[in-house]
# Entry
Amino acid sequence: MYDSGTTTIGEYTFIYSGHSSADKTRSAHGVAIVLNKQATTAWKNLGSTWEAVNERIVMIRLASKPINVTVIAIYAPINPKNQQQAGSTTDPFYEDLQKTINKVPKCDMLLIIGDFNARVGQEQHRTSSNVVGPHAVDTINDNGEHLVDFCSINNLIMCNTFFQHKPVHQKSWMHPGSKTWHMLDYTLVNKKFRSSVEDVRVHRTAAGVIGTDHHLLRIKLKFHLNSRRKIIKNQLLRVDRKKLKNEQLKMAFQAQLNQRLQQPTYSPQTIDQKYTNFVDYVRQTSGSIFQEDGNGRKYKEWLTDEILDVVDKKAKAFLDWQNFRGTSLEAKYRKSYCLLRNLAKKKIEARQVEYWDELSMEIENAIKQHDPATAYAIIRRLRGGRAKIENFPIFDKQGCLLTNSEQRLNRWKDYFNDLLNVPSIVDQTTIQQIPPATITTSEQRRQDKTPTLSEVQCAIKQMKNGKAPGNDGISIDVIKAGGLPMAKWLHEIFVDIWENEIMIKDWTTAILIRLYKNKGDKKICDNYRGISLLVVTSKIFSRIILNRVQGLLDKQLLEEQAGFRSNRSTIDQIFILKMIKEKSHNNNKPLHMCFIDIMKAYDSVDRTLLWQICRHYGLTDKIVQMLILLYQDTKAQVRINGEISDPFDINSGVQQGGIPSCILFNVLFDFIMRRVIEQVKLLGITGIKMAYGSNDFFHPATMPLIWNSSFNALNK
# Structure
């Protein structure tokens, strides 16, 4: 078995394939391609296409002009000692490589790079001059014969052998026994693109930094990567969290907001125009005041100038040692290199201990100050090299593997479209038979009054910090930093919505990201759950509505409901369950218990039914109309690796992540359970006991017959 995937470290993207850490062997397998920021963009522009063929071959495709480039990185088996070994290692390797090349589009420039463990010489140049150049420096071995045959069949050339350099800039590895240098690493390219290769040579200094017995092989190619990034509307607004706590910067931000509010508006604007102006100004102003410091650091955080200086000296000493290998002075220069290598190792270890102590103290202080967001931000920053799932291939509905990013994005869109749109089975006659509640005049005025500035401020204060923003990119942290001027501006927008009953279009579109459940195959969509990112300002507006009706609704819910209610917890339900079991055991009475989790409970809610039930529980037509506006024409877009899918409609269920969603579902579930209890009573069964937390509940009974009656009523 081999392990493969993609990961990001800093500005670099790694596409790798090799043995898993649980199956570690000597360094005889494993290959990777590393892309810088520009190459990563070119890779993504062509769909982030990659394939890990096995632990020795990995392939990617880059968008470039005038033609695209397919890059294959390989690590060939060592030269076989006999024919039997060749049949078990070398032959299968070249068969897999041939199958990989057959998949490459004919119009692409093909670039194969890696350690072929092959040697070719002047004899091969004379017999196969179209493959091997005049600067081959070795005597052919078995792997060399395989490589020459492979190149001849596929019209490839061995670029190393076509450029004249000093021997030290041609040979990349020295045999530890014979002390003889050899050319084992090669660059292969289609013969028709030979002119695109400008130079191939060895650089010896790099090996001293990373401690490898192979020298770095550099290839200069002449083509233009298509690295222009796709522009995404309202990208995530990146601000410095520490600056958001700076009182002077917050005052400067609020002063600019206040100045903007005082500017007169001469022409009438729609609600969407007002909100667009709000978003543009807040993003521009907060981005300039709270902007992250772009220090351009590319090194590890613990690296110091002193360590970098020692590492440079070590690299120079390694180069001196390489220049004198095989001579009488080799021992002297090797000793000098080993001393500097040990010194660099000691300094790095000491600095890392000091660095981790500093970070631990910083995390501890953040927790003591009740700022877990900062603590987790530090931890996430330290986990920058973790494996990601953005470019992980997935299966389509037919079970075919999708590696192209556009195909994967469309697959995720189709998956969530099917998941979040559940056909309604509720009879409309049943909905019409639910009577609305009788509401007093004072209660009507309380619910229907226009939102006040104090309500807006209270709602903003109730929002939790550090939450991801919606499609406008504005987080709650920025909203809170705006203080009173921000609240006034939002109050003006909310009043317009309330009085004219017209909703902002951006509020009804959610951004869906998927989260792996940490179980099952990562290639199967069912092993992920979706998280909806809603616009923060819409959640503030929803919070105002919830604050007005939560007390009214909460006091009407059955006592058995413990989900999403203040001063209640499922811990209470677990305690009740244990007590029932204990009492039944002590009194020697039979006990039957059934545990039920309603599948797709939140996503399958019939909205028309929900609004009528809300009226039944005492919500006014104004409040219900505001809720309808929040759910009217709701859409979602899937975001994968920064790319956004086309929107799709969501016609059922309550919004995931919506502020009133939990209480709305509790009201719906409460109405259903009351009807179940009433219907069971008609059958002469009394004393029905249930306990539930949101959509999960357990039903204890003394006999299974009671279950049947309850479940039949619930199905109806």
